[in-house]
Fold this sequence. Notes:
Layout (H helix, E strand, L loop, with lengths): L14 H5 L3 H14 L6 H10 L10 H11 L2 E2 L2 E2 L20 H4 L6 H11 L6
Antiparallel strand pairs: 1-2
Amino acid sequence: MLKLTKREREGWLRIEDVKNFPRQELRKMDQLWVKYSNGKFGFSVQKQIWLELGGKLDGLVDWDTYIKLGDRVGWRKNGDWLSYDSYTFSTNAPTGHLPEFGGRRLQGECGAGVGGCTTLFSSLDYNP
């Protein structure tokens, strides 16, 4: 995603990068995650969890649901956000654990990471 948005040097995406990310590429990436994890990982899997937790796809900041998502998919432990190198990169990880993109990767003004989450999920306007 960083390469396609020419943000490799920065190492993070802005809200506008997520909004302008090519949907066809996003779908392809998601479909590969879903396929090769047997439905356990992918943006669409995370989107489904987000919706189950009561999240909306309005692009607005929803910190409460974002925290619930982090707890559910294993991005948080004992109330703290995990660092990227503490993630579980295997199929033993909780459903939705990967790919990680979260607020720490979608930076910008306060709350942009959470807004980026709903922006990304809104771009997945298909069923994998």
